[in-house]
Design brief:
With about 400 residues, the protein is α/β, with parallel strands linked by helices. It has a domain of about 170 residues: Acetylglutamate kinase-like (Carbamate kinase, 3-Layer(aba) Sandwich), CATH 3.40.1160.10. The chain is about 35% helix and about 25% strand. It is built from 11 helices and 20 strands. The longest helix is centred in the N-terminal third of the chain and has 25 residues. It is globular and about 80 Å long.
Length: about 400
Amino acid sequence: MLRVLKFGGTSVGTLERIQNVTEIVKKFRNQGDDIVVVVSAMSGETNKLIEYANHYSKTPNEKEMDMLLSSGERVTSALLSISLNEQGFEATSMSGREAGILTTSEHTSARIENIQTKNIKDAINDGKIIIVAGFQGVSTTNHRVTTLGRGGSDLTAVALAGALKADLCEIYTDVDGIYTTDPRLVPKAKKLEKISYDEMLELASLGAKVLQNRSVEMAKKLNVNLVSRSSFTPEIEGTLITKEENIMEKPIVSGIALDRNQVRIGMYGVIDKPGIASSIFTALADAKINVDMIVQTVGTNNTTNLDFTIPSSDLKKTKKVMADFKSDSKNIDYNDAICKVSIVGVGMKSHTGVASKAFSALANENINIRIISTSEIKISMIVDEKYAELAVRSLHDAYELEK
């Protein structure tokens, strides 16, 4: 069996944690598996390197930043290799370049274009454990070191698993799997054994922080069986993220997600003329503002009301854009005291009454829904932020997810 194991910053955060990772790798090796390990930088290391760069420049050259930041992962890969070799296991560390990871040339946010697997396959055939420095590759155009942006080590692991046709790609973090909702909000939340790629993508985009979107998208594209589990409790089985067809009994609802990073913009008394919505949302798109939910209602006297939501981090940019549309409406209102609560499940496609149960659950708690958005496998609702946790708990109870 070929396993790709990825360990994040908290999993390799200290020399003791790296020793713990050594034990996990040894266990799989001793049962006869071929192993490729992908590692992040030790927790805090990347931030420290950024601080060093900022000592000299607030806008350092991106090529040099890639050279600098990629070193953190190389340190971890070498340390883990040294640890394994010391205990009699033949291991070798590889940079992204040595692992054959070829990328575009956008420094600090490159994308993987191709993986030349010869070096890794040769090392596997020689009986070695391969430790790859995550988050990095080499540009196909200028042959410089590149980095893959946030979550880059996850991408490295999934891309390698796809290229090598690995049986499993296991992502080790400080969380032991995917839960029906945040266990800190609902202590009786249940860990899922399996979840589909599409459900995981929805949960990740709706606020669940366990796995990064781009890595799940790539796993779906390359048909990689992805497992989320904890390096702190490696004896506990994690959650398998896989094709929908591989899940025999599809639950109607798999999980509840909460996103507090939301602002609702209300435009009232907008002049109802062709092209006004196009003008507004084109301007927002040009400013790289991600608009989420949109509702338009008919007003009076040839006017309309327009509500939409954006991430809180884009509020300042949005206000700047909306200043150009003040003359097109009577009032523009900004409300950041809201949140988005969503239910996700592939089983929703073939069951009736799913939405009505959600609306009834919130109504029973006197929670008013401001905006509703639906798709085949999700229903998202904007509610007042003060009801965030109550909304999650009531929906979790309504669908009996603890069972």
